[in-house]
């Protein structure tokens, strides 16, 4: 996920020791734990989004979008809900600029408060507080201005990439409202699975590869309205531009649509498409089937940006490593979600392990774990690693992947495969915690894995 930070031996550099920092504080730290959950397997999380309905229209370039968004949700907690939070992640890179990239106005169903957490969090006090089990709706006008930068939410020439552009409901779990800051070198994202119905009106010359499946394309007066459905996903992303296109299917029947910019040759695009197919076929065989009918790959040069994954859509440079890595994220994060700020290893370490199973176990695993400081840990959160960026990739990608390779050697390939298949089956479409992953792996072997997790500094809940 994220910029050119996929693990290689060249990224292992000794980091200077930095004093420990406290974990981030949420604006609602006193909030009582939420009871109730979509599944008894998970700690309580909510409010549970039911449906996002979005209607947006682009300018002639695809860099500015305006329209309306409606969020229907259920209060699945045990106490009355009078306020919800929206995450406006697109504002994260620039913070509270004079003209925010993501602007919400004309709120219906509640009253918006002042933006918080670097203008990435918007509180909405509900007009009618939602009792436990009750539904509620918040709607608003939305303006999206894509900044000029090579990024997951950015614009390069005539190509716009709209990752993390739609406001999403923040999550309140047993710790209270989770409103971490945006981090540029990784992810802070944490969202619950919902259903998206999206209508994108755009110039005919622009393609809009997106999460989900296109239901209809209606042309009128030089513009096209593309209607998209995306059920059971935890986010929605799209791109806009005069992309070239290739298409194939995996051996398991998933439709692969590949979109690429003119600086990428057709041969390179087909090669990347083949690597994506290979990764998806491998993960389906190892862990469990891909439940969606389609996956879109958007390929560009990106100039320093390696790639990023979203449900049923990835961004990647024209290279094997990021393409395989982002495709593997369709299992670890898209299907099995996690709090990426608190537990980045849950998706990144598993994804890089999957990637290196396909591309080869790195030589550096022979020397792992490599601790650059006494405080460096596989299970540390982004509150730690955002200030220790030289340690982040070696720990979460490098040590994390090597940790799973060592576990496979310890308990056997069949056992680790069984554990991960159980983990996926139990947590699919939900939000997992470290304890669930460790328990699933422990269930597949009679060997006590306690000392193994201690060796890898991976014991936090």
From TrEMBL:
Domain of life, source organism: Bacteria
Keyword Ribonucleoprotein: no
Keyword Membrane: no
The entry's keywords: Signal
Peptidase M1 membrane alanine aminopeptidase domain segment(s): 278-456
Matches recorded under CDD domains: M1_APN_like (cd09604)
Signal peptide: 1-25
Any Pfam family matching the protein: Peptidase_M1
PANTHER family given in the database record: PROTEASE M1 ZINC METALLOPROTEASE, PUROMYCIN-SENSITIVE AMINOPEPTIDASE-RELATED
Protein name in UniProt: Metallopeptidase
């Amino acid at each position: 996920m994220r910029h050119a930070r996929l693990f290689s031996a060249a990224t292992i550099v000794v980091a200077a020791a930095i004093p420990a920092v406290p974990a981030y504080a949420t604006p609602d730290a006193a909030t009582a734990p939420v009871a109730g959950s979509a599944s008894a397997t998970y700690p309580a999380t909510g409010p549970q989004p039911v449906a996002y309905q979005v209607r947006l229209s682009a300018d002639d370039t695809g860099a500015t979008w305006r329209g309306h968004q409606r969020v229907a949700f259920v209060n699945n907690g045990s106490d009355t809900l009078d306020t919800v939070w929206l995450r406006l992640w697109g504002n994260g890179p620039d913070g509270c600029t004079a003209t925010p990239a993501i602007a919400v106005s004309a709120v219906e169903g509640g009253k918006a408060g002042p933006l918080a957490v670097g203008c990435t969090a918007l509180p909405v006090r509900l007009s009618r507080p939602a009792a436990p089990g009750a539904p509620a709706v918040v709607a608003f006008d939305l303006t999206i201005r894509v900044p000029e930068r090579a990024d997951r939410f950015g614009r390069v020439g005539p190509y716009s990439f709209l990752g993390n552009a739609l406001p999403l409901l923040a999550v309140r779990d047993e710790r209270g409202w989770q409103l971490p800051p945006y981090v540029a070198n990784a992810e802070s994202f944490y969202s619950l699975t919902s259903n998206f119905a999206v209508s994108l009106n755009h110039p005919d010359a622009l393609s809009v590869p997106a999460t989900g499946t296109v239901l209809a394309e209606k042309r009128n007066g030089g513009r096209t309205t593309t209607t998209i459905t995306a059920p059971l996903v935890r986010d929605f992303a799209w791109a806009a531009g005069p992309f070239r296109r290739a298409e194939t299917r995996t051996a398991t029947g998933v439709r692969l649509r590949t979109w690429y910019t003119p600086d990428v040759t057709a041969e390179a695009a087909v090669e990347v498409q083949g690597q994506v197919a290979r990764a998806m076929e491998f993960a389906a065989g190892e862990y469990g089937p891909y439940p969606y009918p389609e996956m879109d790959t958007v390929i560009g040069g990106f100039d320093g940006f390696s790639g990023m994954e979203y449900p049923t859509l990835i961004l990647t440079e024209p290279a094997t490593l990021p393409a395989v890595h982002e495709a593997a994220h369709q299992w670890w994060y898209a299907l099995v979600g996690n709090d990426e700020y608190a537990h980045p290893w849950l998706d990144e370490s598993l994804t890089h392990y999957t990637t290196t199973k396909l591309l080869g176990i790195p030589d550096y695993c022979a020397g792992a774990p490599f601790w650059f400081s006494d405080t460096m840990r596989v299970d540390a959160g982004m509150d730690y690693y955002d200030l220790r960026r030289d340690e982040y990739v070696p720990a979460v990608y490098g040590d994390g992947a090597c940790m799973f390779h060592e576990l496979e050697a310890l308990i056997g390939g069949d056992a680790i495969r069984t554990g991960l298949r159980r983990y996926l089956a139990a947590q699919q479409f939900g939000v997992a915690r470290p304890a669930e992953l460790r328990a699933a792996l422990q269930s597949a072997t009679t060997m006590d894995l306690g000392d193994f997790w201690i060796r890898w500094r991976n014991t936090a809940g």
